[in-house]
Amino acid sequence: MLITAALRCVRSHRTIPDVATLRPAAGGTIGGMAFELTERTERHLTGDQIAWLTTVTPSGRPAPRPVWFIWDGTAIIVYSLNDGAKLRHIQANDQVAVHFNSSAEGGDVVVINGRAERVADAPVPSQFPGFLDKYAARITQMGHIPQWYDDAYGVALRITPQSAWTIPR
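Now predict its structure.
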């Protein structure tokens, strides 16, 4: 893997990274894009209402979907429709990407890559810490009550970040 990365750098006339400087970030992986919880990333994880979850279909096609999410301090929690296609996608391939809307000028980009898994013992969404604080008003604006969301979006997914990249403002 390192040789392949070095060849890509040589072909693109970039500097080859020093192997000694490649250290895993907290919860991350060794490599050029380990996960590091930067201020920018944390701002999106705690402040944004919508993220884009991209799964991969069994035929290999990317499938981005807007999702509501909660950052629990170590993972991104998403509640899926009980029969959502993303559940089948993740069952076949647990590699996912989560990204947030950029600024109007195309900056402030954050993309997180990770692994997704079902959380069998998760509470219903309305009982998950912070969920109603973040989304109760939206549920009401849609003409529903939290029980509706609990019933329709009952499958919890935990996305464990492995790497991330950003583009500044």
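Confidence is low (pLDDT under 50) at residues 1-32.
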